[in-house]
Specification:
Layout (H helix, E strand, L loop, with lengths): L3 E8 L6 E8 L9 E5 L3 E2 L4 E2 L4 E4 L6 E4 L1 H8 L14 E6 L12 E5 L11 E4 L8 E5 L1 H8 L8 E6 L5 E5 L3 E3 L4 E3 L4 E4 L7 E4 L1 H12 L8 E6 L4 E5 L9 E3 L5 E4 L12 E6 L7 E4 L9 E7 L6 E7 L24 H9 L4 E3 L6 E6 L7 E9 L4 E2 L3 E5 L2
Antiparallel strand pairs: 1-2, 3-6, 3-22, 4-5, 6-7, 8-9, 9-10, 10-11, 12-13, 13-16, 14-15, 16-17, 18-19, 19-20, 20-21, 23-24, 24-27, 25-26, 25-28, 28-29, 28-30
């Protein structure tokens, strides 16, 4: 795909002054080996603790780090229980990322399945985030009923806990528990991986659990048993996957290459606790910074800190603010997340750029930083959208929203 690039100028406060930053549209390849992960519990990375629904980026060249905060997921998941607040999805039990086009939010390429039913979404559904789409921001691409029929599950109920979408459109998946299938009650085990070809109604076995267990044993040089297959993804040459055990490697990303190999080792991800990967996918795009606020629903005069991860080490970053948030994007293509989800014509956006030196800071040597402030005195409820601009690369983060006085 042809790539077009340009430069833009944004006035930011104080020492950053006028910052010229690049924007690009078109396909940009991710560095080889990078994956995204979601965990089955919290993950202690020292600088922050990530929750089981949040998305991490891991490259093998340093510790894993937050990529998509729960606030971003809530913005796109929406207020599904109609209580006036956006809902954070439960544990992401399966995860897939596909490339998206220029000017499209990165999250529009994210597919997932939940660990349990939530707000009308079943734990066997495969769902895509669809910012600005007709179905409230979510699209059920494969329903639990379709998958149940594809494997002829005798109990009429399936729980999907690993997904991948191949280049040909086939759905690869694994189940959270063993299922009896068909008249002979053939057991589909929770460590088997199945494939549903495009247009087909019947799934086929791509890898058995025994085959994958043998690959893990080859990769580790041990006689380990793997338990459940927790996450998968496929490309033209391999399937990567994560498994339930051994516990020392239940966040390690394995590959089918070479009859079984380690794609990324848990030991290099920087966890301070016994983290377990619940889902894995190849990363597509270019890495972008991640904001995470200490409060999702602050009140007037509350102190709030926005932590920032994945900025350029030693370089300035800026918080962009807006009271108008457009999940599908409100501006031309920008590097990183893909688009500005804030309204650049909103008075809050303009005032923030022109008059708030406190919205700029410099990342430390690891690319982390923080900006603290106080919510203005106001009794009125409003949404405060936040994106991070990395001034060295021109990449913007995914958006988060603070639902103030709500």
């Amino acid at each position: 795909m042809m790539k077009s690039c340009g430069r833009a100028r944004v006035f930011v406060p104080a020492f950053v002054s006028f910052v010229s930053f690049a924007w690009c549209s078109g396909a940009v390849a991710a560095p080889a080996g990078e994956v995204v992960l979601s965990l089955s519990g919290t993950g202690d990375l020292g600088v922050t603790t990530v929750q089981d629904e949040e998305v991490l980026l891991a490259s093998g060249t340093g510790p894993a780090r937050l990529l998509v905060d729960g606030g971003t997921l809530a913005l796109h998941f929406g207020d599904r229980d109609q209580d006036g607040l956006d809902d954070v999805p439960g544990d992401l039990d399966a995860l897939e990322v596909v490339p998206v086009g220029a000017g499209t939010p990165w999250i529009a390429g994210v597919y997932f399945s939940l660990v349990s039913d939530q707000a009308g979404i079943q734990d066997g559904d495969v769902v895509r985030f669809d910012p600005g789409g007709p179905n409230g921001g979510l699209e059920v691409v494969w329903s639990e009923a379709q998958i149940q029929a594809a494997i002829q599950a005798n109990d009429g109920n399936v729980d999907v806990d690993a997904i991948a979408i191949a280049a040909d459109g086939a759905l690869w998946f694994s189940l959270a528990e063993d299922e009896a299938s068909g008249p002979s009650a053939t057991v589909i085990a929770d460590d088997d991986v199945l494939r549903l070809p495009p247009g087909a109604t019947t799934a086929e076995v791509a890898f058995t659990g025994a085959q994958l267990e043998a690959m893990v044993q080859t990769a580790l040089g041990s006689s380990a048993t793997i338990g459940d297959v927790k996450g998968i993804d496929v490309d033209a040459t391999q399937m990567i996957f994560t498994v339930q055990s051994p516990s020392s490697d239940d966040a390690t990303v394995f590959s089918t290459l070479g009859g079984g190999s380690v794609h990324l080792a848990e030991s290099g991800m920087g966890f301070f606790n016994a983290a377990e990967a619940d889902a894995v996918a190849f990363f597509h795009g270019v890495p972008f910074p991640a904001p995470s606020a200490t409060a999702a629903n602050p009140k007037a005069n509350d102190a709030v800190t926005v932590d920032v991860f994945g900025a350029t080490p030693g370089q300035p970053f800026v918080l962009l603010l807006s009271g108008v948030v457009v999940p599908a994007g409100a501006a031309p293509a920008l590097a990183g997340y893909g688009t500005l989800a804030l309204d650049p014509q909103d008075p809050m956006f303009l005032v923030g750029l022109l008059n708030s030196p406190a919205l700029a800071s410099v990342a430390d040597g690891n690319g982390n930083g923080a900006i603290s402030g106080k919510i203005p005195s106001s009794a009125s409820p409003y949404d405060l959208g936040i994106q991070v601009l990395d001034t060295a690369t021109g990449r913007v983060s995914a958006p988060i929203v603070l639902e103030v006085n709500q």
